From TrEMBL:
GO terms for biological process: DNA-templated transcription initiation. It holds the Pfam family Sigma70_r3. This is RNA polymerase sigma factor FliA. The lineage of its organism: Bacteria, Pseudomonadati, Pseudomonadota, Betaproteobacteria, Nitrosomonadales. Residues 183-231 are annotated as: Sigma-70 factor domain-4. Coiled coil: none annotated.
């Protein structure tokens, strides 16, 4: 890993961290629609890794892997900026789903089933599940959830590499974390397990589908539904100010 001068070989760093690029791309795919090609993300991530290797100063305090992850993700986001990764129609569909879930929760006093949500929306169950699949990139929080924003701006355009613009400090707020935890605990058991495997164990959707014994597309639907339930909870607790 190191030359006689004590400097790590760039080729060794590249070989060592290539699997990390693929892992980050696979995990990011769970938040993106089927139209996004994983190979495109991997290619963009490799560019980010090469950039990290060329820019990294071993004298700095940050470990290379942590530094490289930032560069790799930033490169992938730059790639996604060039395409309309979540059409407005998909976002609108998810808002309708959230409204239906919220109304049913108040009416039933519990989490509604898929069949009940579809019936409330007056659409067939298959169409409801298709809407969940189309909105595969649905996020728990958007920048506009924290205040006024231009609806024409895409989520990724707002997710710049400038850390000062990131909502991370708000995400780490103890009250918000407690609200999210309470929301997850209120999810149906199967969706609780899915969220745990995806966000805590960092399994990708294909791996989770093997655990559940269902298709990857079905896991995408359940993940989207869980996110819609959580967003409904955050709206009720006034963490999300947008409709």
């Amino acid at each position: 890993m190191y030359t006689a001068s004590g400097k790590s070989e760039k080729s060794d760093l590249l070989t060592l961290h290539m699997p990390m690029v693929k892992r980050l791309a696979h995990h990011m795919m769970g938040r993106l629609p089927p139209s996004v090609e994983e190979d495109d993300l991997v290619q963009a991530g490799m560019i980010g890794l090469l950039d990290a290797i060329s820019r990294y100063d071993e004298a700095q305090s940050a470990q290379f892997e942590a530094y490289a992850i930032q560069r790799i993700r930033g490169s992938m986001i730059d790639e996604l900026r060039q395409s309309d990764w979540l059409p407005r129609s998909a976002r609108q569909s998810m808002r309708k789903i959230e409204q239906a879930i919220g109304a049913l929760q108040h009416q039933l006093g519990r989490q509604p089933s898929e069949t009940e949500i579809a019936a409330a929306m007056k659409i067939p169950l298959a169409e409801y599940q298709s809407m969940l699949g189309d909105a595969r990139g649905h996020q728990l929080l958007y920048f506009e959830d924290f205040g006024e924003s231009d609806e024409d701006d895409s989520f990724l355009d707002k997710q710049s590499a400038n850390e000062a613009s990131m909502p991370l400090p708000q995400l780490l707020d103890a009250n918000l974390r407690a609200c999210i935890i309470a929301g997850i605990e209120n999810l149906p058991e199967r969706e609780q397990l899915l969220m745990s495997l995806y966000y805590e164990q960092e399994l990708n959707l294909r791996e989770i589908s093997e655990v559940f014994g269902v298709s990857e597309s079905r896991i995408c639907q359940l993940h989207g539904q869980a996110i819609a339930r959580l967003r409904t909870k955050l709206k009720e607790d006034a963490w999300i100010v947008g409709a």
